[in-house]
Amino acid sequence: MERAAPRSATLDAPLFRRRLITWYRSHARELPWRNVSDPYRTWLSEVMLQQTRVAAVVTHYNGFLRRFPTILALALAPEAEVLAMWSGLGYYRRARMLHKAAQFLTQERGGVLPSTAAELRTLPGIGEYTSAAIASIAFGESIAVVDGNVERVLLRLTGRPEQKDAAGRAFVQKQASALVPNRRKGDKTNAAGDHNQAMMELGATICLPHAPLCLQCPVYGMCKTRGEHLTLPRSAQLSRPAAYLLSLRKRGTLTEVLLQLRADDISLMPGMYELPPLPQDAVQGREPLLRLRHAITNTNYYVQVYAASGPQDRGLRRAVPASKSDLHWVLTHRLGSLPLTGLARKALQRLDVMKVDLPKLPAHQP
DNA sequence: GATTCGTGGCT
DNA sequence: TAGCCAAGAAT
């Protein structure tokens, strides 16, 4: 039986940590959830960041906190309002679980987040990654985080091909754990939290999935592959057309828009509002008001929005297959407080029916 | 262990 | 245009 010889000496962990943290201190992006002392804010940012790009989180984070500044405020809010503030971020189960966890903490733990990864892990919506991230970043626990960035960095560093099974995950976990610094008594800085964020920052800004910026990498000299990286094949994308109705009516000086409420018992975005979907054959030969692309998981929807034709909506309005009890006229100025699907929100904003709320820009550093 | 759950920016 | 995939968790 052939036995694989050790391919390389193990990484020089202290050297790696020094190079990484030195780089991080001068290159870290300034993000709204960096350098905060409230663990609730760290929690919120980590949940929002699950499978979601930083830029998308930046547009939602401040607004959500303004509306729900504390765990208590979040716990007391109706779920629909929590979903409304989440609208556009996707994976709405995250918002429901965050809300449930806030209610649990308020009722059972005096509204205080636990400070260890093991305890955090028991809360709804907090898994392996998020528990380690909050524990290290907010509380200084010495525990490694493994997200997509960390996995990619470590696979490239060690030259190991991507492997989705338990052995592959165990390998990455072991590598990550070997690199996290220990907690030191009396240390004012947060070594583990900063190290973890630095690993992710490296993956997000230098060790990119395609065309990594190896010449700017602080640990280039310790890297086995320097960019080459075997990955598994991804599932194919689909393309599908989709059509929706825009129907407006005046109420004095105000305007109402017709929305459809998605059923509570469907798996995809239950209990959320969208523009009424139209059958494809109802819109043949018509000219849409708006065309846009909208991706849901592995499907690209080529969406067209059509205006109801006559003043009484006699045209397309009747082609809406939904039952009347699912259709609701909503004042346009109330749209911001409704749980809209991301697509509905995007379409209503582009059609100038709904106001675009600009994210607060971070202070500019000259 | 495999599936399901959204979205948008980049190329 | 169409493919890629990101600071994952729950079931």
Automatic annotation (TrEMBL):
The EC number on file is 3.2.2.31
Give an example GO biological process.
Answer: mismatch repair
Q: Does the keyword Protein transport apply?
A: no
Name by which UniProt lists this protein: Adenine DNA glycosylase
Native organism: Tunturiibacter psychrotolerans
Please name the CDD domains in this protein's record.
Answer: ENDO3c
The family this protein is said to belong to? Belongs to the Nth/MutY family.
Tell me, in a sentence or two, what this protein's role is.
Answer: Adenine glycosylase active on G-A mispairs. MutY also corrects error-prone DNA synthesis past GO lesions which are due to the oxidatively damaged form of guanine: 7,8-dihydro-8-oxoguanine (8-oxo-dGTP).
Matches recorded under InterPro entries: DNA_glycosylase, HhH-GPD_domain, HhH_base_excis_C, MIG/MutY
Q: Which domain of life is it from?
A: Bacteria
- Domain HhH-GPD spans what residues? 48-205
Pfam families in UniProt: HhH-GPD
MF (Gene Ontology): 4 iron, 4 sulfur cluster binding; 8-oxo-7,8-dihydroguanine DNA N-glycosylase activity; adenine/guanine mispair binding; metal ion binding; oxidized purine DNA binding; purine-specific mismatch base pair DNA N-glycosylase activity
Q: What's the catalysed reaction?
A: Hydrolyzes free adenine bases from 7,8-dihydro-8-oxoguanine:adenine mismatched double-stranded DNA, leaving an apurinic site
Task: Name any cofactors this protein relies on.
Answer: [4Fe-4S] cluster
Question: What keywords tag this UniProt record?
Answer: 4Fe-4S, DNA damage, DNA repair, Glycosidase, Hydrolase, Iron, Iron-sulfur, Metal-binding
